[in-house]
Write a structure and sequence with these properties.
The chain is α/β, with parallel strands linked by helices. About 35% of the residues lie in helices and about 10% in strands. The strands form 2 sheets. A 7-stranded mixed β-sheet has the order 1-2-3-4-5-6-7. α3 runs parallel beside α4, α4 crosses α6 and α7 runs parallel beside α8.
């Protein structure tokens, strides 16, 4: 890589690192499994596909020049930082060369707004056309759409990309007006709405779409955030909402201090709650409400819901319906199907659950098997929560790779 190109890569890959809405989950491609090569110091990010494969993407900005002055953004026009810009040909050449060397399996492309929205979208489109038509690159491409760009440009980009996104960033119009005066929620969502409507009108397969919400930069509660996510899912506008703990990068009076630590645990709980929205048929107001507008950081959201709704428990594992089993903390979707299948042949006890490799570490407090309650703690919110938070100490044994629970990878609750 030539020195000037290498320097551009360092600047523009570093400028892209705060965008977490980067995933190839659920995409279709022609890649061969396992062809992951060496990594590179700048621009390479790792993500997971729906089947659990780890893939590498070149994550980079076309340019970090920007006419916007969003208070939370490192690339805001008022910041005195090193700037750079790729030409469409330069970025296409880097992408295809990295791909041929097995450094990457695809591209995640975003950009600052240079000159105006249409001009920036044209440059992104040229990059995609070089990759698709000149180099016949059929790999994964995720593009950040530019809010405010002409719909005709959006159409062309969507036709060439595997996934598109447009980051809302802040959960309310009030916060956007305060910290990002060039943006509105409607303007940000318009490209995604157009892409969705286009696919419905043309009867084509809907393209995967996502967005990012910054957590902790503004005073919105988890209820505000999850309500917005729920609405976006219900409108079939998005496949994924990504949550990003705010990392202070600018000294701004309307933002948390630079010495504040990112709310990483809160971000983690929001991802768990989002999982409940998408895979466990929870509504947002079951997870958070007026009385409890923020997620409990001590326990996961599913356990928190169970503790606040002990009247539903303990559930008899041999009689509970599929929907009821999905509500039991510690038992995931796969575990539910294992239980339903095994119940056809016999009545299950706790030993049977262990043989099915269903963890009862949390579930034991919320279930009975053949009428028997396994846990030795009293059945109350306080004692169960304390037992989950601070379980009895055991002799530490170094686990092998095969002892690690699969749920740590799948995210099952």
């Amino acid at each position: 890589m030539k020195k000037d190109i290498y320097e551009k890569m360092q600047v523009l890959a570093n400028s892209a690192k705060y965008d977490v809405s980067c995933s190839s989950s659920g995409s279709d491609n022609n890649h061969k499994t396992g062809e992951l090569g060496a990594t590179h110091n700048s621009g390479i990010c790792h993500t997971f596909t729906a089947d659990g494969r780890c893939v590498s993407l070149l994550k980079v900005l076309l340019t970090n020049y920007c006419i916007y002055d969003c208070a939370y953004c490192i690339n805001r026009k008022s910041n005195d930082i090193k700037r750079a810009a790729f030409s469409p040909r330069e970025l296409a050449d880097i992408t295809i060369n990295f791909y041929k060397r097995n450094y990457i399996e695809g591209l995640f492309l975003s950009s600052g707004i240079i000159d105006n929205e249409d001009h920036t979208m044209v440059l992104i489109l040229r990059t995609l056309k070089i990759l698709r038509f000149k180099y016949h690159f059929n790999g994964y491409i995720h593009v950040k759409l530019i809010p405010g760009a002409d719909n005709r440009l959006i159409d062309e980009v969507v036709s060439l990309a595997n996934r598109v996104s447009s980051n809302i960033e802040l959960p309310s119009d009030k916060s956007l007006k305060l910290l990002a005066p060039n943006k509105t929620k409607e303007k940000i969502l318009q490209p995604l709405k157009h892409a969705r409507d286009r696919s419905l009108q043309n009867d084509t397969k809907p393209i995967g779409m996502s967005t990012q919400l910054i957590v902790g930069a503004t005073p919105e509660t988890d209820k505000d955030i999850l309500k917005l996510s729920s609405v976006l899912y219900d409108k079939a506008l998005l496949k994924r909402v990504y949550y990003s703990a705010y990392i202070p990068v600018n000294d701004e009076k309307n933002l948390p201090s630079l010495i504040n630590k990112p709310p990483l645990l809160r971000e983690h709980r929001l991802y768990q709650a989002d999982w409940l929205l998408r895979f466990y048929d929870f509504s947002y107001d079951e997870i958070v409400n007026e009385e409890y507008p923020n997620l409990d950081e001590d326990v996961d959201p599913k356990t928190s819901w169970a503790l606040h709704n002990l009247s539903y428990f303990p559930m008899e594992i041999n009689k509970a319906s599929k929907d009821e089993l999905l509500r039991i903390p510690g038992i995931g979707v796969r575990g539910v199907f294992k239980i339903l299948k095994a119940r056809k042949f016999k009545s299950l006890d706790f030993e049977d659950l262990k043989k099915l490799k269903i963890s009862i570490k949390r579930a034991q407090y919320f279930i009975t098997c053949k009428g028997k309650y396994h846990s030795k703690v009293s059945f109350s919110k306080e004692t169960i929560k304390q037992a989950i938070i601070a379980p009895p100490k055991k002799r530490i044994i170094q686990p092998s790779l095969f002892d690690i629970e699969y749920s740590a990878i799948t995210g099952e609750l």
